[in-house]
Specification:
It comes from Streptomyces mutomycini. With 273 residues, this protein is of the alpha+beta class. The chain is built from eleven helices and eleven strands. The strands form four sheets. Strands 6-9-8-7 form a four-stranded mixed sheet, with no helix packed on it. Strands 1-2-3 form a three-stranded antiparallel sheet. A two-stranded antiparallel sheet has the order 4-5. It binds calcium ion (3 copies).
Length: 273
């Protein structure tokens, strides 16, 4: 921690830079801000490039600017999603496995499918909310698609997100009742940031519905997901970690070439909502 901190301190930067100049070792001078944990792209570099048009904005202006930025993307087919998830959700401790979102289980990449005990493709923004299906578009956008146990995926179904309910069998730390699902603490923020990414990415200006969060449950097939107040709380309580940041990076580098802004700038959740 202390050695990391040192590199962020501007006065030391300046001192280091002058020493470099004095000794004539020159031009390689002050390095950019070091990468955020687990991510390859320096946050400052992203601000100077990818997010440049959004900086300094707030509210609807920020949302609109981010929509333009993240809509420039490569789109996958639903069958391509399988291989993509094997890369984005790979277990850092075992490259043969993926980590399942709700259960947290590390499972062989090859055990994907529809049988009991397999993992399949969970749409965190439930695809019936806006009825976008699995056509290329929101239904194949891997920013919100995650590996999940077939049965747990079925238990979550198309429920909105909220706190409370009974323990979910086979998925420790997850709870559900008749109208909502509460994921385990370690992925609460991930879920919130995925939902809010979808809200910004899909604004109704393509062939799909304008997706938006609201503060309800029982949204049914409306293009809404709740509850926004709970998602905002989850985003604060569970800030981005290296797994989530790496995932964003892999999607950006290798697959869709767009980013989830709320992983890079979690403070933009409050700036917009
Ligand atoms: Ca409920
Ligand atoms: Ca997390
Ligand atoms: Ca929207």
């Amino acid at each position: 921690m202390s050695s990391r901190r040192r590199f962020y301190a501007r006065p030391l930067f300046a001192a280091a830079a002058s020493i470099v100049v004095l000794t004539g070792a020159a031009s390689t001078a002050p390095a950019a801000t070091p990468p955020i944990d687990g991510a390859a792209s320096p946050a400052a570099a992203l601000d100077d490039t990818y997010y440049q048009a959004a900086l300094g904005k707030t509210g609807t202006a920020l949302k609109s600017s981010l929509h333009t930025i993240i809509s420039d993307q490569t789109k996958l087919s639903y069958s391509q999603v399988w291989d993509a998830l094997k890369a984005t959700d790979a277990d850092p401790a075992n490259s043969s496995n993926v980590i399942l979102l709700y259960t947290g289980r590390s499972q062989s990449k090859s055990e994907n499918g529809g049988d009991v005990g397999d993992w399949n493709r969970e749409h965190v923004w439930a695809k019936s909310h806006g009825d976008f299906g699995t056509a290329t578009g929101p239904g194949t956008d891997i920013h919100h698609l995650r590996p999940e146990d077939v049965q747990v995926n079925s238990i979550r179904g198309n429920k909105d997100f909220d706190n409370g309910g009974s323990a979910v069998s086979g998925a420790p730390g997850n709870y559900t009742d008749g109208d909502s699902f509460e994921p385990r603490d370690a992925v609460k923020g991930d879920v919130a940031r995925m939902i809010l990414y979808m809200a910004v990415r899909y604004e109704g200006d393509d062939a799909f519905a304008d997706l938006e969060p609201n503060d309800s449950v029982n949204n049914g097939s409306a293009p809404k997901i709740g509850r926004l107040s709970v998602l905002k709380q989850w985003s604060q309580e569970d800030p981005p970690d290296s797994f989530e940041q790496n995932r964003n990076e892999v999607i950006f580098d290798q697959f869709q070439h767009n980013r989830n802004p709320f992983i890079d700038h979690p403070e933009w959740v409050e700036a917009i909502w």
